[in-house]
Amino acid sequence: MGCPNGCWDFSGTYQVNRQGSADSLGGDIAGRVVEPSTALDAQTTVTVATGQWNGFSGTGTWQGGAQGGVPNGPSPTSATGQLVWNLHA
Amino acid sequence: MRVRPSLLARALSIPALVAVVAVQMGPPAGAGTTYQDNPFGSAGTVATTGSPAPDASYTGSFTLGSLNNNYGMNGGQQNGQITVYETSQTRYYKSPVDSGGNNLCQYAPSTMGQVVVINQNVFVAGRYIVTGGQYTFYANYVWNPPTTTCPPPPANPGNPKPQGAGDIYLRRLFAATGFTSENGTGLVGGALWSPLWGFTMGFSATAALSDYGCSASPCHVQEIALAHGNHLRIDTTEITTYWLNGQKTTAASPDYFPVRNATISQGQTAGIFVTGRYDWDGTDWRFFATNVFSPPPTPGTTLLETVQTDAGLAETNSGTYDPTTNTWAGSQWQGQTNNISPGLGLGTITMTLDWHFTWVAQTAAGTSPVPIR
Question: Among B325, B192, B183, which residue's Cα sits nearest to residue B265?
């Protein structure tokens, strides 16, 4: 995604745990939030998978929106969207 | 303290490793004012092995005759031969030959016994000291057959340039499979080298254990690797997790460093899978490992499952603002996942994120990144 009016670029790590089970996915995440549309687009890797996905690896996406960011000011404070992972073994 | 770059680059196909060769040798006890310490290289035929070593710190020795392709040497030969001493830091590389005895130039780490063989030709790169007119040669590297019989390596393609401020302040993802080519890496610019900072990862066009981890073309990680002789320098930190034969070890473990070293070392033969993030440090791309696996997980070519979920997250801690880089570092996020089938179901999600605002200005010549600070 281009960002003619500026973008919030981000990177880090994530961890998802299924409630009441040992199932989890975790890894690295990096993406971009476009201003002023607040559209969010990110890629993920799966480096740690447990429970029913134990030993799996993969990649994924996170698409949605992030709100609360002020260009050249505070970074976004909330986000919603859909996470999709393609798991391999 | 460097061996001639062209020879190492030819042998290892990794120019960045030129700075690696510093096997530190202090002057011997009693060195006088005539002390000299210089790099050298020479091809020749192994005449004998097992010459008496100066002391117990040396692991072996051999005499080299029929010397050719010498550099850095200004004496020290006796009857056309030199005696070369080996240490625990001497590294050995062996390449197969074809049925006609021609060097296939596919060097792999090897052992002293397989490389230093009487009547076989080798190339030695190392150092020599001169004290009181007495020459003592030490081997840093020994290649069998000599690297001088290999064609010059093709020139590396250009290193990709950063595309904006995001490449400087934040990091892209990578997940690559290859093998450990050196148990160490350099700091910025490769000027310093240490096994404590990371390792060097190599790829091979013919090995099954080579995957740059890209689904898009061109592959950015592959472009960077090819610009560095098909190698990547991997930095490790205290957050790097190691998976040795499937067993997880983190910095909280008392055996963290032994497992770390064993994982990286095993990657020479069993292969290594590294995930993490990378960025542009101002002079080159730097890769930071978050997970290191040896052996690599079973090649993930079979799509087993697609998992999806909706998620809503909120920032619980904004992290630390660095006005120098205009980056919010270490912000904490928490949220919930919703039940989508086939999916993750109800659950929790947490993230630790770094943020940087990038403004891309429209100019008459096109688009150029102009980060606002």
Answer: B183
